[in-house]
Design brief:
Blueprint: H1 26-33, H2 38-43, H3 54-57, E1 60-64, H4 71-83, E2 92-97, H5 105-121, E3 126-131, E4 148-152, E5 155-156, E6 169-173, E7 176-177, H6 180-188, E8 195-199, E9 208-212, E10 218-222, E11 234-238, E12 244-249, E13 254-258, E14 265-270, H7 285-297, E15 303-306, H8 308-318, E16 331-337, H9 344-348, E17 356-362, E18 384-387, H10 420-427, H11 432-437, E19 454-458, H12 465-477, E20 486-491, H13 500-516, E21 521-526, E22 543-547, E23 550-551, E24 564-568, E25 571-572, H14 575-583, E26 590-594, E27 603-607, E28 613-617, E29 630-634, E30 640-645, E31 650-654, E32 661-666, H15 681-693, E33 699-702, H16 704-714, E34 727-733, H17 740-744, E35 752-758, E36 780-784, E37 790-791, E38 794-795, E39 802-803, E40 811-812, H18 820-827, H19 832-837, E41 854-858, H20 865-877, E42 886-891, H21 899-915, E43 920-925, E44 942-946, E45 949-950, E46 963-967, E47 970-971, H22 974-982, E48 989-993, E49 1002-1006, E50 1012-1016, E51 1029-1033, E52 1039-1044, E53 1049-1053, E54 1060-1065, H23 1080-1092, E55 1098-1101, H24 1103-1113, E56 1126-1132, ...
Length: about 1250
């Protein structure tokens, strides 16, 4: 079938059969053959004269040495194939070689180097190599075109530099590396890596495996099956977007998981090296901490598979410490040794929302241990369960009591043979009233209730209150040496009339008893009874729920294991009592607070480093002090919170960068006749800071009260941007839909919107009733309005086959009635490939794609180059008089063509959309030249160019361009780039990623409007890198990032507005070059550079830059950084002594973050004594784990002894040196009496 859709008469053979292949174009045939092994492709050459040499044109090679009788023939064939069309692109290269070529490693390496060089030049996209012990040449690690890399059995040498900007899939199977750093650089050099599979060998030279990737989605790790020299390898994973994780390695001693908040599925088959006779040691604190952090790292997973060996280790660990909660886990598949079903309940306690459970068994023998064999809690959320083990006959209970003791046929009494420990845990989930009733079942059950490790009572179950007291005393006297798991008590009256002292005495006696019995779950409801202080030192308590009790003034609180705290209508002595209770729970994760109007708390401070969830409900009564109520939240790990109170006057949010979900139902006390006053500046500041504090949230629910206040506020000031917000649920008063557009302006990435209405009457205000912005990211919308008409849709996800909704009953087709203009703007945000697919929906949609004011195409989506060109031409021919919003084109496909043709196509298209007033242009096309007419486009707002060539412009006028990105662009000369930048009169953001042969020796950035500039120098060393100069003249510049070690000179002018700077430069002092104090021009350049950035407020400095600054400071004094309040510095390992020298120049520094770089450099003579008092420093964070070495502790001592107003120091300690460092910290004097040292 041809591309224009015309009918074609097909050639018929004599027997009536149709020859489909004869008329197919060569390019299509080549792509079909690309999916076959080369052996089969070559066989097709005998079909006809047309097919004789077709195999040479196929853009790929797939060979196995076993298909060749001689190795020399194998090598010769590859060389011959690579010589064909050596200028064309090669899509894939797959090679399997399992033997030595004449036993000569040098010869094999030479062959491989020759082929890899050819592949890189031919822009290969997919490489799959299996070759025992051959070395891969370094040029492969700078291949810009590679998308997939699979290596097996090869050797990777020591890497100096890796840049694989397009690699998404990488498989490393039994590969040998030079050292740890080689593998780490290879992974981090893949900037868009999504899938990584690593199957290790025992002698791969990697002791510490670090997987750091900001884009990685899937990681599959299979350790060596042999116990090599390193029986304690470490695996560290830092991948914030990781969704799928599989770990299989029994001998790896340590797994470190960081930032796995996006984890969806995990398959864990590891033993932490507790195999081959090694056993878990409860006294090994470092090993316990490693397991604790690993479990916490994967605790957000949704689907989990656990091997039996892993479950054994988790069980042993759980006997020492509680397991973290797997709150998101809905599917669990577990396996046991030899039907060790008893392990399961321990782990299931940590899975509160589990819905599906698959259980299997492994027959591998393993020595049994003494295990508590019963379920530990009710599986309240479990919906599905499947057993993969042996087939089991289900037990049938007899129908009559008389037959209950018979064991005939298939009738089995499972309960009678259950061990007592299992029965106790079953009964633990029942109320004590029901447990006691079971004592009449038989003589075995008569006293069983006394040994259940829990008590749950309600005073309403007793006729006399004295009987209740007596029963509790009697129960607590049984087995008083055993542990008590839970204690739950509900009392709604006084036990001894109105005698509070008697009630307090009962409570004190019972609390003392349960604390001694290491109670874990405590739930108390008792009006006005006072809780004794001993409860606040309970080391075993995990969950504490208190209702209507009285908490006295607390001197000391230490609840090290409490994770859940619920306080309902509790009376406190003062603000401090509640604050100390919360901060005393060191691992608190969930806090719910329902305030009593007379609870004596005027300012509620919630300060916790571990809190994940916070629910706040204010008092329901209009107390006299409502107008003064303040809630202050400082919880850096907080993910979910709900605020519900209309009368609380002020909410202060700090450190909420981890916030995922928020439910806001507050009015800041603007109720009961009170109205928002635009002249009340303190109140406006409160609202501004609150909105800024929650602006990083992803899912948000807003009540109508809150939305009204936000609307009134934004009439005075703009609302901060909610850049992370993807889901929003809002409510309105009486169909006040007009408010919505105002808030939506602050949600640029919103994808899902749920709208409801409330019929509570409220006075209307004058509101702008039309939308203010285009909802460019919105994908889903649902309207919930008192169970009225809802949209129904059915069909597949891609929308190819959709059943149209009917207008009968409650079914409404919302889309059908939308105007074409709105549909076009919705479709503008989709790739053109998906837009065209919509043409099959109905006759109305058939030609709608032609009217969408934008084009977004990728050459990879087209099998033929001519088809790609034809489609672009055809699209641009439609509606030539209309404006074009955006034009995005990427072309990386392999083709046989000349540059003149490509340039002609580009010139024709650029002319077209310049005439059509294009606003956003994004072009990526290797080696194509951009026509000069582009430099005069008055409508262009955003310009992004990649890998193109810009000729020498005579004149540049881009009056509307605000954003410009130039990635690996080649220019005619220095002046061409300078004119392009200066010709953008309102340019605000410039990103420049240079190529080593871009013909620019002196880069001048001169702009009166520029706010942000990001500069990345060329990745490779060009012939003139020694002379590279960057000159910046931008008086309004607020953000500056410089990253290049080879650029020789940076000249900074007029940066008086600079707010933030990220500096990673060396002024070309690398590759053996050193700072020369006698080089006066270089010293002057560094002096002027430092003076140029000295007005910055927030700065990050790389280790290499700090080294240069130190060398310079030994010759001349540094300029003062008077405005600098936040500094992040990095050092080469153990070079802490450099810091005091630079801090002398920061008189107003408040926050300091210290890290280290693992690269080693030659040592220099550094002054190690403190040079000045840090009179302004308030916060210090040392991110690198301290090992207790002399230079490290000298740095800590310097900071603590020379900072008079220091408030907080955060230290990370190495697991193996923790005790040593903690002891040393206690001996260091502190100049600041209020300094808090936090150890992680």
């Amino acid at each position: 079938m041809d591309q224009n859709g015309e009918k074609r008469v097909r050639a018929k053979q004599s027997d009536g059969e149709v020859d489909w292949l004869r008329d197919l174009p060569e390019s299509l045939l080549c792509h079909v053959l690309l999916n076959l092994p080369t052996k089969d492709v070559v066989k097709t050459s005998v079909l006809s004269s047309k097919w004789r040499y077709l195999w040479r044109l196929v853009p790929g090679l797939d060979l196995d040495c076993r298909d060749f009788t001689e190795n020399n023939t194998f090598v010769s064939f590859i060389d011959r194939f690579m010589s064909f069309h050596s200028d064309s692109w090669l899509r894939k290269f797959r090679l399997r070689f399992y033997c030595d070529l004449n036993g000569d490693d040098v010869t094999e390496t030479a062959h491989m180097a020759r082929w890899i060089n050819a592949l890189v030049k031919r822009k290969v996209q997919y490489i799959d190599l299996t070759w025992g012990a051959v070395e891969i040449p370094p040029i492969l690690y700078m291949c810009d075109s590679l998308v997939s890399l699979k290596l097996c059995g090869v050797i990777l040498p020591k890497l100096e530099f890796v840049t694989l900007p397009r690699v998404k899939v990488m498989v490393l199977d039994l590969v040998k590396f030079a050292n740890d750093l080689s593998l780490e650089m290879l992974i981090s050099g893949c900037l868009v890596l999504e899938s990584l599979t690593l199957c290790r060998r025992h002698n791969d030279n990697v002791k510490v495996l670090r997987v750091r990737s900001q884009s990685l989605l899937s990681f599959n790790y299979n350790g060596s099956s042999h116990n090599g020299l390193h029986d304690d390898p470490v695996v560290s994973i830092d991948a914030p977007k990781l969704e799928d994780l599989k770990l299989s390695r029994h001998l790896s001693a340590c797994f470190i998981t960081n930032k796995l908040s996006s984890l969806v599925e995990a398959d864990i088959n590891i033993e932490f090296n507790f195999g081959l006779g090694k056993k878990f040691d409860p006294n090994d604190q470092s090993k316990r901490e490693m397991i604790r952090n690993f479990l916490a790292g994967i605790s957000s997973v949704k689907n989990l598979f656990i091997a039996p060996c892993t479950l054994e280790v988790i069980y042993e660990y759980s006997r020492c410490e509680p397991l973290p909660l797997f709150c998101n886990l809905s599917y669990l598949s577990v396996d046991f040794y030899n039907h060790r079903w008893e392990l399961l309940p321990i782990f299931l306690e940590s899975c509160p929302n589990l819905k599906s459970l698959v259980v299997g068994s492994t027959t591998s023998p393993k020595k049994r241990t003494s295990i508590l064999c019963g379920p530990r809690h009710l599986l309240s959320s479990l919906e599905y369960m499947d057993e993969d083990g042996e087939k089991r006959v289900l037990a049938k209970q007899p129908c009559s009591p008389e037959s209950s003791d018979k064991r005939s046929g298939d009738e089995v009494d499972w309960v009678r043979d259950l061990p007592e420990s299992l029965l106790f845990h079953v009964l633990l989930n029942l109320r004590t009233k029901d447990v006691v009733k079971s004592s009449v079942l038989s003589s075995n059950w008569r006293n069983l209730w006394r040994y259940v490790p829990g008590l749950e009572l309600d005073c309403r179950d007793f006729k006399e209150l004295n009987a209740l007291v007596s029963f509790i005393d009697s129960f607590l006297s049984f087995n008083h040496e055993s542990c008590l798991k839970k204690f739950k008590l509900r009392l709604s009256c006084y036990l001894d009339g109105d005698d509070e002292e008697a009630d307090n005495a009962h409570m004190a006696r019972w609390i003392n008893a349960i604390v001694k019995r290491n109670v874990q779950y405590l739930d108390l409801t008792w009006d006005a009874v006072e809780i004794p202080p001993i409860l606040y030192k309970c080391k075993s308590l995990v969950s504490l729920k208190l209702c209507t009790v009285v908490l006295p003034n607390l001197k000391f609180v230490s609840l090290p294991l409490v994770k859940v705290l619920v306080l309902q209508w509790v009376m406190f002595a003062n603000d401090l009592a509640l604050e100390k209770l919360i901060s005393g729970c060191l691992v608190l994760e969930s806090l719910t607070l329902c305030k009593n109007p007379m609870d004596n708390v005027k300012v509620l401070r919630v300060s916790s480093q571990s809190l994940l969830s916070f629910n706040y409900y204010g008092p329901g009564d209009n107390d006299l002090h409502d107008k003064d109520l303040v809630v202050e939240i400082d919880a850096p790990k907080l993910e979910d919170f709900k605020l519900s109170h209309q009368l609380t006057a002020s909410f202060i949010i700090k450190n909420s960068r981890s916030l995922v979900e928020a439910d806001i139902y507050i009015e800041f006390n603007f109720c009961r006749g009170k109205k928002f006053d635009p002249n009340d500046l303190p109140k406006r500041e409160i609202i501004r800071n609150f909105l800024a504090g929650i602006s990083s949230v992803k899912n948000l629910i807003i009540s109508p009260f809150t939305l009204e206040v936000i609307y009134e506020y934004l009439r005075c000031e703009p609302v901060p941007l909610f850049r992370n917000l993807s889901s929003l649920s809002v409510d309105f008063y009486d169909d006040r839909w007009e408010i919505l557009p105002f808030f939506l302006e602050s949600c640029p990435n919103l994808k899902s919107l749920v709208v409801e209405s409330t019929h509570y009457p409220k006075g209307r205000t004058s509101i702008l009733s039309r939308p203010r912005c285009l909802l460019s990211s919105l994908e889903y919308m649902d309207e919930e309005r008192d169970k009225h008409v809802r949209t129904k849709r059915s069909g597949d996800e891609d929308g190819d086959k959709r059943v149209c909704t009917k207008r009968s009953g409650d079914e409404v087709d919302w889309v059908r009635d939308l105007p074409e203009a709105l549909l076009c703007h919705v479709l503008l945000n989709l790739p053109t490939k998906d837009v065209v697919r919509n043409s099959v929906l109905s006759t109305k949609w058939r030609n709608l794609w032609r009217y969408v004011p934008g084009l977004e195409l990728d050459g990879i989506d087209f099998t033929d180059y001519n088809t790609f060109v034809s489609f672009v031409d055809k699209f641009l021919s439609f509606n030539m008089e209309s404006c074009l919003n955006n034009f995005r084109l990427s072309f990386y496909c392999v083709r046989d063509g000349d540059e003149e043709t490509d340039n002609a196509h580009m010139a024709r298209w650029i002319n077209n959309f310049v005439n059509r007033k294009v606003q956003h242009l994004d072009l990526a096309w290797g080696g194509v030249e951009i026509p000069p007419i582009l430099y005069k486009c008055e409508s262009l707002v955003s310009l992004k160019l990649c890998c193109v060539i810009l000729p020498n412009p005579e004149f540049v006028s881009l009056p509307s361009v605000k954003v410009m990105v130039l990635d690996l662009v080649k220019f005619a000369n220095d002046l061409a780039l300078e004119m392009l930048i200066s010709g953008c009169l309102v340019l605000e953001s410039l990103t420049l990623c240079r190529s080593h042969n871009d013909n620019v020796k002196v880069l001048r950035v001169s702009s009166q409007s520029l706010l942000s500039f990001t500069y990345y120098g060329p990745n490779t060393m060009g012939p003139k890198n020694d002379e590279l100069v960057v000159e910046i003249d931008a008086p309004k510049l607020e953000y500056l990032k410089l990253s290049h070690r080879l650029t020789a000179s940076f000249i900074i002018k007029n940066l008086s507005s600079l707010v933030e700077a990220d500096i990673d430069i060396e002024f070309n002092f690398c590759f053996g070059k050193k700072f020369d104090p006698k080089n006066l021009p270089k010293r002057e350049m560094i002096r002027n550079f430092l003076v140029g950035i000295s007005g910055v407020k927030n700065m990050a400095i790389a280790a290499c830059t700090l080294e240069i600054i130190y060398d310079y400071s030994r010759c001349e004094p540094l300029p003062l950084f008077r405005n600098l309040s936040s500094l992040s510095v990095e050092f080469y390992i153990h070079k802490w002594e450099i810091l005091p020298l630079f801090l002398e120049s920061c008189p107003n520094l408040k926050s300091l973050v210290v890290g280290s770089n693992t690269s080693r450099r030659e040592g220099t003579s550094i002054i190690s004594a403190p040079r000045c008092l840090l009179s302004s420093l308030e916060y210090v964070n040392i991110e690198t784990p301290l090992r207790g070495e002399a230079l490290e502790m000298k740095l800590v001592s310097y900071l603590l002894e020379n900072s008079p107003i220091l408030k907080k120091v955060t230290l990370s300690l190495d697991d193996y040196s923790r005790k040593k460092v903690e002891c040393e910290l206690l001996t260091i004097p502190r100049r600041s009496s209020s300094c808090q040292v936090v150890v992680l």
